[in-house]
Specification:
With 170 residues, the protein is mostly helical. The protein has helices spanning 13-32, 35-40, 45-56, 60-74, 79-89, 94-112, 114-123, 129-145, 150-166. The chain starts with 12 loop residues before the first helix and ends with a helix.
């Protein structure tokens, strides 16, 4: 009798090693976090303890072995939620990148057109219009005179803080 072959092809040794190296790299990123960030993450207790222990190990060989141990513990954990949390902590999530691009476009729009400030103030009633006008005027002057973009950056920071204040959690 002929038996049907498994629908899932066997994973090659190279692919398994690559996955293990990726998990170990994720463990390295965990070790680079502060202790408070590590305790805030919802990690299994053994993994959290191993990561905190790795932060205290000073010898190169001991740290290397601890990182391998963390990689081994990572095999039992779903890495996707950890990766998402690390991306958010690093500010590299797709949502953060989109927000950054949106704020940059808003800054360019405000610098290019005076009517954009009127539109912005209608949407953001709590915004300090005088500070916005001053930063826009100074940023335009900096661009015109070829000076370092101090007000340009200040304008972005202000827009970011206003956006964070009015952003809806979700």
């Amino acid at each position: 009798m002929i038996t049907a072959m498994s629908a899932v092809p066997p994973v090659s040794k190279t692919k398994r090693k690559q996955e293990m190296h990726e998990l170990q790299a994720l463990g390295v990123e965990l070790v680079e976090l502060s202790e408070s960030q590590i305790t805030d993450l919802e990690l299994p207790e053994r993994l959290r303890d191993a990561v905190l222990a790795a932060k205290r190990i000073k010898s190169h060989e001991g740290r290397r072995r601890q990182m391998q141990y963390i990689g081994r513990l990572m095999r039992d954990v779903d890495p996707a939620p950890i990766r998402e949390l690390l991306d958010v902590l690093g500010g590299q999530s797709a949502q953060e990148a989109a927000r950054h691009r949106r704020l940059e476009a808003l800054r360019e729009k405000l610098l290019a057109n005076d009517e954009a400030l009127t539109d912005y103030s209608a949407q953001h009633a709590g915004a300090d219009l005088q500070e916005l006008r001053t930063l826009i005027r100074n940023a335009r002057r900096e661009q015109k005179e070829g000076k370092p973009p101090r007000a340009f950056r200040e304008l972005f920071r202000l827009l970011k803080s206003l956006d964070a204040g009015t952003a809806t959690p979700g």
